[in-house]
Amino acid sequence: MIYDFRNFKGVENFAFGRGCFNHLDSILDKKRNSSEDFMVFLLDDVFKGKALEKRLPVKHNDLLIFINVKDEPKTKEVDRLRDEILQFSKQLPVGIIGIGGGSVMDYSKAISMMITNPGSSAQYQGLDLIKNPGIFNVCIPTLAGTGAEVSMTTVLTGPEKKLGIKCDYTVPNQILLDPELTQGAPLEQRFFTGMDCYIHAVESLSGTWKNPFSDAFAQKSLEMCRSVFLDHEPGIDADEILMVASYLGGLSLTYSQVGVCHALGYGLSYVLDIHHGLAGCLAFNQLEDYYPQGVKDFHKMLEKNNIKLPLNVCKNATDEQIRKMAQTTYNLEHMWDHALGKDWKNKITIEQIEDLFRRI
Ligand code: NAD
Ligand code: ZN
Q: Which of 43, 237, 255, 282 has its CA 20 to 30 A from that of 90?
């Protein structure tokens, strides 16, 4: 088989295991070459005043910014934070460290690039639009599932669209996968973000872009998600397993794609402000026709983990909102191409997508 030639970039350094976060200080020290050099720490504000904040290796001229992720990352907020960092010092930071779930990691990936590229981040939503490499970027997940720690995209909501800035420069330079950091996450949130990983694997494995390279990562990731959420094998360290599953899920998408569920999920997030993990679950719940086994097992996972999905979420959505969600979804051509094939426009219509939304 001859594939479209794509020359991928990976994370340069990674460490895994309980306590690996303790090595952040020495990793950053290697980047501090003069007394003027400073780091910017972006920390999910859920950790404000908590033990994790106290463990950050913040030095005297570093900048610590708390990030609120009630809303998922927006281009406007990326630009504002970039300006705040540029005003903080006459020189540029030598590192941007994002510590949190997918939202904070995506902020750190985007800001790292926007410090060295002019204009608004909204200009760069798309493929390979960034011109200059970003600042050294470290991503440290405190929730496992999105794969943002390893992916070549940072998903942003802009004035016109929800779309990633996708290019080689988006990939973090360093990641620390410390399962200890995910321990306090609320069970529901842990489930929804974990399901993001599960859905990445299911979608990666069933579509036209799949190949042995993406399958290898997706199959293992799927197996690990099942062991955490379905089989509940005794004695397993679920936090450890989920963190590796997330990483593998992210890697599987480099060479494959997400599909129908993510296309619908983007519509839900863009128009109704529903977070990625929950939006994916709401959409997946209705997609038995496309992913029969995956959805069947998902229903079992909901039950086993005692998770009640909100129902009739789109009941009060106006016709205009439904239309906008369907259009946003339809515009994600690469996802449909992967899920249904090159002739996808003959297989799905905007009206059918609107019907799916009405059932959510
Ligand atoms: P999140 O980062 O949006 O966080 C969800 C909630 O969990 C927040 O309230 C946060 O404060 C809280 N939280 C995080 N860690 C916690 C912890 N250890 N203890 C207690 N609370 C904690 O959730 P997410 O699902 O990880 O990320 C979703 C985001 O990731 C979306 O913006 C989505 O677009 C993005 N995403 C990006 C990629 C990518 O490849 N770049 C892939 C998938 C999703
Ligand atoms: Zn996802």
A: 43
